[in-house]
């Protein structure tokens, strides 16, 4: 039996919609990856999904977002397709020093979080649309350390 779950949602790119999508991703991931040891990885995944949507909302001038969440085996995949300006949120982040508390470069933390907490990030420009894919892997129950 195929245990793959798929959620498709289209929404206006506004912050309260980002919050609703984040809550949906959290709930679906918690239900799918039921092992308590996966909670931290689910939190990481929801954080990078949220950072991606927020950055895209702020910088791409998109009129509509189309999101897809795929859960299968031990992987969560989030795809965001959006119109608007060419905006690659996976571009190499400027390293941010922990001692740097002022004048943090725009995108420094969000991009660094996306790249550090995800297990794969892809960007593709398709005609007038942008697509970003975020991946997060989860250990099998036998791989968990107790």
Structural class: alpha+beta
Mean pLDDT: 84
Strand proportion, as a percent range, falls in: 25-35%
- Low-confidence stretches at least 5 residues in length (pLDDT < 50)? 142-146
Largest β sheet strand count, sense and barrel closure = 5 strands, antiparallel
What is the ordering of alpha helices and beta strands?
A: EHHEEHEE
* Total number of beta strands: 5
Task: Give the terminus-to-terminus CA distance.
Answer: 29 Å
Return the domain count.
1
* Shape verdict: globular
C-alpha Rg, in Å?
Answer: 16 Å
Count of individual helical segments: 3
Strand arrangement within the widest β-sheet reads: 1-2-3-5-4
Name the helicity range: 25-40%
Explain what the structure shows:
- This protein is α+β, with helices and mostly antiparallel strands and 146 residues long.
- The chain has one domain.
- It contains three helices and five strands.
- The chain has a five-stranded antiparallel beta sheet, with helices on one face.
- Strand 2 (65-72) and strand 3 (75-82) form a beta hairpin.
- It is globular.
- The model is unreliable at 142-146 (pLDDT under 50).
